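#onboarding

Welcome to the new folks! Below is a worked example of what a typical request in this channel looks like: someone posts a single protein sequence, and someone else replies with the predicted structure as tokens. Don't worry about understanding the tokens yet, we'll cover that in week two.

Example request:
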Amino acid sequence: MAVCRNSGKIKHYFTFFTGLVECLCFAGAMFGWASLVFVLKSEGYFSYLCFNTTDANATLVLDCSEQDEQFSIIFTISSFMNNFLTLPNGFIFDRFGTTVARLVGIPLYTMGTLMFAFATPAMSDLLFAALPFLAVGGIMLLITNMQVGNLFGLRRSTIITLYNGAFDSSSALFLVIKILHESGISLQASFLFLSACSIIHFLRTFFLLPKKLIPYPLPDGYTYGVTCCKSKPLLDQMSQQTIESGNTEMPNEKTPNNDAPVNQERTLRQCLLSRLFLLHLLWLSVIQLRHLLFIGTLNPLLQRLTEGEHSLVSQYLNAFALTQLCGVLCAPWNGLIMDRHKGKPLAEGETEEQADLRASILSLTLTSVQCVLFSICAATPYLPLQYLTFILQVINRSFLYGGNAAFISVAFPSIHFGKLYGMVLALSAVFALLQYPCFILVNDVLDGDPLYVNIALALLSLFAFIHPISVYLYCRKPAS
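Example response:
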């Protein structure tokens, strides 16, 4: 039994490590779109939309605004699909389990990489399907990996935020492809290699992840995947623990357990209509819109600030992509903030749910402050300041998505996690569609100058503070 327990611990850590690599190297590649656009432009994708025109000084210049618009539309569609389809993905994950969810997501990811591999400038429209497939498949990898936090008990929120940070950092994958392209390795070779790596994802699915879900809290002797130790089914384990504890009632989702937190009794409908969920949706939507618009318009922004100097644009894009690697380092700090109360005695009259929510207030507030600072820097048309903008962007983004998943895991019943996580991302995706009208406003009405739109977004980001204030007031209520 001791040997099985030790091998189980080793397997837990191996599952965690390989999941981290999967999220870090593959899952969130779409958010490095700015680096890939630079390569696609040099290859001539949508180049037929560029035309010669004269500027105010009667100088002949090449106008590629319509080309930029196509790349912006692709990113808008992909970011919408990435978030909106998380809703059905969450239902698939909760209803059918890990194996089925990954057998849906991995083929989508592979199809996306193959479409990129075989796309050509003459088939530029293939990109409209390639990036959304890559995005939807990638978010499924993240969803199925976040449950690994349940294996580590007191560090659950830290693991969840770490995986989200790795997801953010994987946007540097397109930087690697950009550097390889500049070294002479074709886009086709790079994306065919990514397609071949799908074999690794399939192997993890069957050997290092459960067929269904990892429960929380984790039962004694719980095993998953391929194991050399015999174990009873999860229901048998729970029954044995119930008998040993002297309780003859079988644990059941429909029979409330008096020792369980109050939040385990809430239905999905009650969660969706709660003030906590609705204000969390507002918080995520406002901050996410700021980030998506920044990423989607980064190329034309740098073109404007550098006055079209090709080498300088490439330098800043490389700097932006390199800062994305720091997401995996920033995100765990948010998890540690949310886990800082674990293992300490509860205050008098305080429930476990309220203790978790109270710990989340600082995380939500810091994320909102970071967004305001990031928005102010992004709105300032001073090129060297964009280095600071990149740093604030990656810190805020890692706090945002890691904090989003961690907050849902502590504020609502774990049996609804996949559905609520999918719902909040799906609804925020609808709000994020505003990025395209903003891009059209900047490009067509404001003559490419995003200053006024950036100022409006900086003011809009102030609404994010409503959520932490609401959670603070909620936690002051006497425990019922």
